[in-house]
């Protein structure tokens, strides 16, 4: 029989493959998570956990090459779940608002106002904006990530931009 | 692009650049990934049962209340089976026992559905909502209580995050056309749960958010009785996922393997635990086949050695069986070559042997073996298709239903409830039978657009592709499923028909 006794494993990737997968995909996942949550530590945790979950499902995917899209979907879902669980948006926006008031650079004021307004959006709207304007995803790809139709993405982004337009001019007037 | 869009892009890009990102994989990544793979695979089997149960009530004949649900809905809070949940008052909290979702004679045995939430009231039993005429629900949620998980994703404490679930197309096209599924597993107050949330493409944003908020609102009471079974560990052998379950019952401790097919198992019943109990089972077929060996040792054992034929020793971790299940025993599980044997020795703290045993060698049998099959209709799995040579490799199995299935399920798993989905597949050996295909072979595959009685005549090359990839091959509206189960008809030693078996 040889020395083949061993505790059962479910290895489907070598260590090198797994690490390569991690290094290739996790940084982008962290950035998307950060832009949605506004919290760097939380973004790291979400991306790491989402990666592990995605790897766990990897061999169940009908199209393994869809790993990146699956990971993105998992990250977006974890981010929106986070806000549902913790209901921290209001408090976070208040904190961001206070932080923004301390910035002194000339153009920094508008950027902070935009950032604050962005983070005040509903989580799914914010995710749609991040995926469209940062990740440059199509409406179809964005819909796949946040689990809604391209038309719903269009509507969500339009509502988000309308909200941002309403808030930014108002803040400029003050 | 207007100013706002340009500023927004610039802001997002700048902010993203400043967030620290990992430059390398962390230590322990592989180990955690393996745990996740095993846990998810095992959990998937459990959740699929819950999702299948989603489809056994009809919602079409009562007046729909979904369309009238306002965006802001008054919330009600109710408790069912120790779960307290807040949800819009217009929705229905359904007792799975009363709705007949568990069985016609519900028991307290796990796994069992403990809660369902729907926008419509349950009515008659039916196969799946996708084929209900008239108003269909736009969402459904079930919560299932399962044997307490000591390891894996489902052992994580509440709150849990719902995750997208890939069903491999098994229910997506017919019973739940276009539906999205989210799943979660967690442990709270000593109880382990799995939730399956189904959302139709027509679900409103308000209902989606309200449903997810209802999920998040759940709180849990401790079980009103001590657990009688726990999932000790999970794994994958020969390509098949399994759970090692310890249960206590009138006959004493039962240690069993529950696999995805429900057909690969075996159990130990031990009134006492002074001796070593040991069971083996082969998972997978061909080159992939492996033998799993599991068993019990006395609780005084602190070290277990596995000894192969060449006297090589390998230390095997001792798996703790909680005292509430059995204070006198612990467990182990190992994987060995399919044709191998292993001797087990368990030692106490003084180094004295407290139990020993040996897996029985199996009768010599080439794997895969090339043998035929008698004429008739046979159930099993098709492992490969040689289109040019017009042959298939067939893994014979047995499809049981009714009381026969219940009995086999209970013997294999050590559980006492009825078999989920009223069927049980027994596949005890990995022997492959290479069978010639008739020139007039009829390949009948399920038309999932007209589930589950309609078939279409399939193309052998596409079928071979699906079998080879163990995935789905889509041809227009038709789907070839490589992981399905089959009935073959053999006449004069030649396969004349292959028919797909519907499995929920």
Outline the structure in words.
The complex is a heterodimer of chains A (174) and B (504). With 174 residues, chain A is mainly alpha-helical. In chain A, 74% of the residues lie in helices and 0% in strands. Chain A has helices spanning 15-37, 40-58, 67-86, 89-100, 108-119, 123-133, 139-146, 150-173. Chain B is α+β, with helices and mostly antiparallel strands and 504 residues long. Helix content of chain B is 15%, strand content 39%. Chain B contains five helices and 30 strands. The interface between A and B is large, with 65 and 72 residues.
Helix-strand blueprint:
The complex is a heterodimer of chains A (174) and B (504).
Chain A: H1 15-37, H2 40-58, H3 67-86, H4 89-100, H5 108-119, H6 123-133, H7 139-146, H8 150-173
Helix pairs in contact in A: 1-2, 1-3, 1-6, 2-3, 3-7, 4-5, 5-8, 6-7, 6-8, 7-8
Chain B: H1 3-18, H2 29-54, E1 75-80, E2 83-88, E3 92-94, E4 112-118, E5 139-146, E6 148-149, E7 163-164, E8 180-188, E9 191-199, H3 205-217, E10 219-220, E11 229-237, E12 240-249, E13 252-259, E14 266-270, E15 277-283, E16 290-298, E17 303-307, E18 313-316, E19 329-337, E20 343-347, E21 353-358, E22 376-386, E23 391-401, H4 402-413, E24 423-426, E25 432-446, E26 455-457, H5 460-469, E27 472-475, E28 478-481, E29 485-491, E30 494-501
Parallel strand pairs in B: 6-11, 25-30
Antiparallel strand pairs in B: 1-2, 2-10, 3-4, 4-5, 5-9, 7-8, 8-9, 11-12, 12-13, 13-14, 15-16, 16-19, 17-18, 17-20, 20-21, 22-23, 22-29, 23-24, 23-25, 25-26, 27-28, 29-30
């Amino acid at each position: 029989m040889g020395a083949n006794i061993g505790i059962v494993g479910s290895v489907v990737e070598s260590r090198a493959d797994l690490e390569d997968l991690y290094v290739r995909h996790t940084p982008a996942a962290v950035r998307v998570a950060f832009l949605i949550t506004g919290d760097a530590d939380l973004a790291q945790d979400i991306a790491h956990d989402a990666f592990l979950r995605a790897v766990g499902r990897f061999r169940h995917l009908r199209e393994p090459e869809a790993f990146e899209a699956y990971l993105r979907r998992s990250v977006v879902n974890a981010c929106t779940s986070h806000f549902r669980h913790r209901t921290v948006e209001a408090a976070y926006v208040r904190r961001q608002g206070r932080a923004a008031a301390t910035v002194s650079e000339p153009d920094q004021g508008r950027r902070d106002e935009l950032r604050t307004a962005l983070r005040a959006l509903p989580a799914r709207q914010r995710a749609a904006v991040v995926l469209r304007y940062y990740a440059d995803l199509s409406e179809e790809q964005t819909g796949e990530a946040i689990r809604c139709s391209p038309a719903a993405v269009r509507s969500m982004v339009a509502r988000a931009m309308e909200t941002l337009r309403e808030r930014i001019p108002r803040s400029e007037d003050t | 692009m207007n100013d706002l869009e340009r500023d927004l892009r610039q802001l997002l890009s700048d902010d993203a650049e400043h967030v620290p990102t990992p430059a390398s994989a962390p230590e322990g990544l592989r180990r955690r990934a393996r745990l996740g793979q095993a846990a998810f695979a095992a959990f998937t089997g459990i959740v699929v049962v819950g999702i299948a149960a989603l489809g056994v009530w009809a919602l079409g004949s009562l007046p729909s209340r979904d369309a009238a649900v306002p965006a802001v809905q008054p919330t009600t809070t109710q408790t069912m089976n120790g779960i307290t949940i807040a949800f819009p008052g217009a929705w229905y909290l359904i007792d799975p026992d009363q709705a007949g979702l568990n069985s016609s004679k519900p028991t307290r045995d796990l796994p069992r559905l403990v809660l369902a939430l729907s926008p419509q009231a349950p009515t008659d039993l039916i196969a799946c909502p996708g084929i209900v005429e008239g108003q269909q629900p736009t969402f459904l949620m079930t919560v299932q209580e399962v044997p307490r998980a000591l390891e894996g994703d489902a052992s994580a404490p509440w709150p849990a995050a719902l995750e997208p679930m890939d069903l491999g197309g098994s229910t997506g096209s017919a019973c739940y056309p276009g539906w999205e599924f989210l799943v979660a597993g967690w442990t709270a107050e000593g109880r382990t749960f799995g939730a399956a949330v189904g959302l139709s493409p027509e679900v409103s944003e308000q209902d989606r958010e309200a449903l997810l908020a209802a999920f998040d609102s759940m709180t849990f009471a401790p079980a009103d009785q001590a657990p009688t079974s726990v999932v000790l560990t999970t794994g994958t052998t020969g390509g098949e996922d399994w759970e090692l379950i310890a249960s206590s019952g009138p006959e004493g401790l039962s240690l069993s393997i529950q696999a995805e097919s429900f057909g690969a198992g075996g159990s130990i019943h031990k009134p006492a635990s002074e001796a070593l109990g040991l069971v083996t089972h082969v998972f997978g077929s061909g080159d992939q086949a492996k033998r799993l060996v599991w068993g019990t040792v006395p609780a005084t054992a602190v070290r277990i050695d596995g000894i192969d034929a060449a006297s090589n020793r390998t230390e095997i971790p001792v798996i703790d069986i909680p005292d509430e299940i059995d204070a006198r025993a612990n467990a182990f599980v190992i994987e060995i070559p399919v044709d191998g044997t292993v001797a087990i020795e368990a030692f106490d703290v003084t180094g004295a042997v407290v139990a020993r045993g040996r897996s029985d060698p199996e009768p010599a049998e080439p794997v895969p073996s090339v043998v035929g099959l008698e004429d008739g209709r046979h159930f099993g799995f098709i492992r490969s298709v040689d289109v040019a040579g017009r042959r298939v490799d067939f893994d014979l199995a047995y499809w049981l239903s009714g009381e026969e299935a219940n009995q086999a399920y209970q013997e294999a798993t050590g559980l006492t409830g009825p078999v989920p989905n009223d069927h049980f597949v027994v596949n005890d050996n990995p022997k492959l039978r290479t069978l010639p295909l008739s020139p007039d072979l009829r390949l009948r595959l399920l038309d999932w657009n007209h589930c589950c009685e309609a078939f279409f005549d399939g193309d052998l090359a596409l079928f071979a592709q699906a079998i080879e990839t163990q995935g789905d091959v889509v041809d227009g509206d038709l789907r070839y499923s490589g992981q399905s189960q089959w009935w073959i008809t053999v006449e004069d030693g030649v396969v004349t028909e292959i028919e797909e078996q519907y499995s929920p």
